Amino acid sequence: MRDTKEGRVPMVVIKRLPKYYRYLGELVEHKVERVSSQTLADMMGISASQLRQDLNHFGEFGQQGYGYRVEDLYQEIGRIIGLENEYNMVIVGAGNLGQALANYPNFSKRGFLLKGVFDINPKLIGLKLRDNEIMDIDHLEQFIQKENIAIGIITVPKEAAQEVADIMVRAGIKAIWNFAPVDIKVPPEIVLENEHLADRLMVISFRLKELGFEED
Amino acid sequence: MRDTKEGRVPMVVIKRLPKYYRYLGELVEHKVERVSSQTLADMMGISASQLRQDLNHFGEFGQQGYGYRVEDLYQEIGRIIGLENEYNMVIVGAGNLGQALANYPNFSKRGFLLKGVFDINPKLIGLKLRDNEIMDIDHLEQFIQKENIAIGIITVPKEAAQEVADIMVRAGIKAIWNFAPVDIKVPPEIVLENEHLADRLMVISFRLKELGFEED
């Protein structure tokens, strides 16, 4: 649980906000004007009462019997998420994963702007990645300060992840998205999201097991 | 909510199982024999009562006042997740993301075995990726059947994702992990996990906003 201006919002609700935003965005694209809590809940795979509870954390939405105005709710959830802001980002680690993220099309659309890609490997430094030239990690600290970088993405091998995080923190980064399969330590005022890709396979495993998966 | 042998387990609890498994694995590595629900809950960032509720979905663990036996709980959660099984996987899309996942070290350790990588690009077909030669997507359907592939990972551009999913389903795949930024449709008996990487940035955005992030 965490404190917000809107009250204490459980992490599980926070994690559903992007999904609301995505589904509402689809409805907006299809020019749907109103949606009932039941329909939206069905799209989300949750119950209508869960949906109403979720949205109640953020104020009053919708009208009894009339459902939600799609465009308004979409804009409002975007505002709650903070998408009116733009965030400058760096990626450290220009291997396959770093390159994949650098080329991921949906980040800049949401206001997450990649400003630099860094690596330690002389063979990669100087290469162009879309609009970004891969820079020497020696310049990372200064770059974060000068370019007002808010979010640092770590895609280096796990042995180097903590060191990269330390540089980012020293330079005044606000948030770290860590893909290295290791838990890094940062001060409590830094937003840290660890991406554990193997976790997703474990969820798949659990769900397969529920369905009675047996090896042949 | 879903039915299991152990009763109906909410998705939010299922999604926490890999995290329990990871933290308990660390305690096992450090040769910790017992852990209190409070300590484990603190590691997890949840309340002790939440933790006890979570584990109650799966039976009786721990003894009042004695905490949990780390090794037993670790093994048991691994069993609940289904990690005693091995799963054969293919990756379709041998671009940066597909290559990054093919090289990700923590999958095979958990029994998720990469058996083949496929692409449509003649320049990539035939290249070696670790132990895997990139194959022509024309051979995908037959390969899934012959090699008893359970999990298909989709890392193609979004325009091609549904077509790849259709081939996988036709070939009898059990689960799909989709990284293409588009919602694909599969029959209800197929386990589908969509990876929306931009969602994680939105969670970061929300958390930064809570902390009073303002652009300079």
- Rg calc of chain A: 20 Å
Question: What is the CA–CA distance across the termini of chain A?
Answer: 44 Å
Mind telling me the CATH class of the largest domain in chain A?
Alpha Beta
The H-and-E topology of chain A, N to C, reads as EEHEHHEHEHHEEEHEHEEH
CATH architecture field of the largest domain in chain A:
3-Layer(aba) Sandwich
Assembly category: homodimer
Give the spatial strand order of the biggest sheet of chain A. Answer: 7-8-6-5-9-10-11
Give me the CATH fold name of the largest domain in chain A: Rossmann fold
| Main sheet record of chain A | 7 strands, mixed
Give start-end ranges of low-pLDDT stretches of chain A. Answer: 1-6
The helix count of chain A comes to 9
Would you mind describing this structure in some detail?
Two copies of one chain form a homodimer. The longest helix of chain A is centred in the first third of the chain and has 19 residues. In chain A, the strands form three sheets. A seven-stranded mixed β-sheet of chain A has the order 7-8-6-5-9-10-11, with helices on both faces. The first copy, chain A, has a two-stranded antiparallel sheet with strand order 1-2. The N terminus of chain A is likely disordered. The first copy, chain A, folds into two domains: 79 residues, Arc Repressor Mutant, subunit A (Orthogonal Bundle); 113 residues, 3-Layer(aba) Sandwich (Rossmann fold), CATH 3.40.50. In chain A, helix 2 packs across helix 3 and helix 7 packs parallel to helix 8. In chain A, a hairpin with a 2-residue loop joins strand 7 and strand 8. Chain A is globular, with a radius of gyration of 20 Å. Chain A is of the alpha/beta class. Chains A and B meet through strand 1, helix 1, helix 5 and helix 9 of A and strand 1, helix 1, helix 5 and helix 8 of B.
